[in-house]
Design brief:
Hypothetical Protein Ychn, Chain: A; alpha/beta; five-stranded parallel beta sheet
């Protein structure tokens, strides 16, 4: 008897799933200009084909993200390993410096890994527009901490 009841219940549920309207089965894209406030952390650990090219591409993604959400977003970029090199290069590379400044103008916050600074034997003063307030103890630990606070993780 129990088996028969379960079989009937399964068939009824299957029929409901098939009969459900398409809108209930998928999550359509929101209308243009509609986004719920987002908290996002981007990982910048360098990349191919080279750290400079990778970082410029990451900053274009961040800029597009801010534009798509109408600025209704809080973005942090955590840089460690090869990602820190971009801030060294920006000291003498006007294009990189301008891209960093443009992101900051959109309220993007850059965080730098202290472990990487120690490994590279440099300080925040050796990087473009980075202060001690921008330095976190560990880039990887900061990614985990921010995710625990509800930030969505993106590694482009």
């Amino acid at each position: 008897m129990l088996t028969r009841t379960l079989l009937i219940l399964a068939l009824v549920l299957q029929g409901l799933a098939v009969a459900a309207p398409a809108s209930a089965q998928s999550d359509p894209a929101p209308p243009a200009g509609y986004y719920v406030f987002q908290k996002v952390v981007y990982q910048n650990s360098g990349g191919l084909p080279d750290d400079r090219t990778y970082f410029l591409r990451l900053l274009r993604n961040v800029g597009a993200h801010v534009t798509a959400t109408g600025g209704d977003v809080e973005i942090r970029v955590v840089s460690f390993a090869g990602g820190v090199k971009a801030f060294q290069m920006a000291r003498t590379d006007p294009e990189l410096a301008q891209a960093i400044d443009a992101a900051r103008a959109k309220h993007v916050r850059f965080l730098i890994c202290r472990n990487t600074l120690k490994a590279m034997n440099i300080t925040a003063a050796d990087l473009y527009d980075v202060s001690e307030a921008d330095v976190v103890p560990s880039g990887v630990a900061e990614l985990a901490r921010l995710q625990g606070l509800g930030f969505v993780y993106i590694h482009p």
